[in-house]
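Lab notebook: predicted structure, single chain.

Context: the supervisor wants predicted structures on file for every construct in the current expression panel, including those that have not yet been purified. This is the next one on the list. No modifications to the sequence; it matches the entry in the shared construct table.
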Amino acid sequence: MSGYTIHSIETFADTDQCLVRVRAGGTEGWGFAAPFSADITARCIHRFAAQYVLGKDAADFRGFADEIIRQNYKFLGSFIARSAAGIDTALWDFAAKLENKTVADYAGKKRDAIPLYASSMRRNPQPLQSEADRLAGFCEQYGFKAVKLHPGIPVNRDVDFYPGCSEELVQRTRRTLPGDIDIIVDVNGNFSSGRAIEFAGFLKENGVCMFEEPCPYWELDEVKKVREACAKIGMPVAAGEQDYMDTSWDRMIEERIVDVAQPDLLYIGGFTRALRIAERCAEKGIPVTPHTSNRSPIYLMGVHYMSVIDNPYPFLEMGVEFNDWEKAAYTNPPPIDGGSARIPDGPGWGMAIDGDWLKKAEYQISKL
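Prediction complete. Output recorded below exactly as produced.
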């Protein structure tokens, strides 16, 4: 692969999605930056990231994301990591295509089928029973063996939509789903540690198998309190989707603040950095499953990721809202068979990009 000098980085973006194309030596690779406010990420790619990649040998791509983050020490934040991820994922696609392999095969694929869980984004559906029925329908239709609920209001300091709303949603879902369907509950940092510990006991009593992001993610000491209390009752705690700083991951892994690690491949700074987290977690016996809450290309990349890591959690997240924007930029999400996803055919990510979307997207280029 050596000898391919990177000569241009292009972005195609709207507010929801940002595709990144890297070109070197007559070959190109396509990547993806995190969804949501993706037009801002595109601008950050050209302002803060491209200059540290242009003119470099594509063979050295595994070090680029770290370098982008390091060089932007005065501007550290989520958008810097998102910018690094767009370039990193494009270069994984580039490298795999040079060998006519999928990214999974290029990275050392260990499994072909990735079991999925149905992830609902409806926080206060009315009536609540309608959500339980909807998830039961998805399990029957697709063969899912697990679901995720998102009750409560994110980072809202113990305030619910109304008293008992979250508890009722969990109970109705547990009563409605067959007993062999696992339930994961993600409150997106809604709770103080005290309230989270109390809620964890309720979840255990109602057959929930995992408690995700109990406290605001930056409050690691609070999350640690919850995890230590949950360990006594056998309730696994998961977190990590928002985290991109190495120091945070160092603490979460070394101090066992989480039982299940959930890096977002694009929030964390790309596939390379997410693979490193999986390797470190494997050394500590911590299973990993990435945050892939919608069916945009992040879900496709998550399937590749789960196929290569040594320590996968039993399920990968798949959003079940089926919003139009999620597939606007590409046309071939991984096929589902018996509740599991499979990597699409084709080299690289195997992503079939929608040409009509590209024509409408905001275009920018940085080049030598």
